[in-house]
Amino acid sequence: xxxxxxxxxxxxxxxxxxxxxxxxxxxxxxxxxxxxxxxxxxxxxxxxxxxxxxxxxxxxxxxxxxxxxxxxxxxxxxxxxxxxxxxxxxxxxxxxxxxxxxxxxxxxxxxxxxxxxxxxxxxxxxxxxxxxxxxxxxxxxxxxxxxxxxxxxxxxxxxxxxxxxxxxxxxxxxxxxxxxxxxxxxxxxxxxxxxxxxxxxxxxxxxxxxxxxxxxxxxxxxxxxxxxxxxxxxxxxxxxxxxxxxxxxxxxxxxxxxxxxxxxxxxxxxxxxxxxxxxxxxxxxxxxxxxxxxxxxxxxxxx
Length: 303
Fold this sequence. Notes:
Layout: H1 3-21, H2 43-50, H3 54-61, H4 70-79, H5 84-93, H6 111-119, E1 124-129, E2 134-137, H7 139-145, H8 148-151, H9 158-164, H10 175-190, H11 197-209, H12 211-218, E3 228-234, E4 238-248, E5 255-262, H13 265-281, H14 283-299
Antiparallel strand pairs: 1-2, 1-5, 3-4, 4-5
């Protein structure tokens, strides 16, 4: 028996006992019955509600060397009313490959995350989910990317924008190099969502809207997110070289804050110029972009 397994089995037993102890029969729709000497559900009740044998569940809770399938663990997780992080913890302790719950795609950020984005100015910052939906931005991001010709597409999704705007108005320079890398990052996330209707419809619709995307997607390349130096263009200031960095967000699985910092002094001057331009000339653009995001969220509520 491996050392890691030896440590996990007592932890699994303690975890199951603690979660069983916090529930009452009423929590799971059972009659109260006779007075109980100890709080919580009995082992046989958890086994019955989960559709497994009492002996098997007892052995699992005792940390004995038995195998558990994802289906059985999911049944136990439902019976014990486990939250998503607790469900994942159960899988890890049982040494079963974890599969996130389907259709879980965050489309909202809280005020705390928005405050972080705003505090990062003058750096350009945005929150993306795994499908490159734009969940939140700061004003510096909107200075660079929310030009009317892209905003009016009506879909606050980076890949949709980049693959459907005319090439001459695409904000990404070196499009043939950068866009395949973004699609490869998308595919690395897609592997966790194969068969989910929302994801399959997204891939189908974007493939129909952009033959270019369809060709790149068919290539099957996969890569994780990572830091890069990218060159963008803006109609008012020209090209800017920016360094991107991704940061994970606690409590928001498969979402990340992406921060773009000027890669050189020329880019730094141009970012400052865009900020001044916003303050002097272009307040409507921010509100136009915000309205698109509000409309999108209203039509596509978070699951």
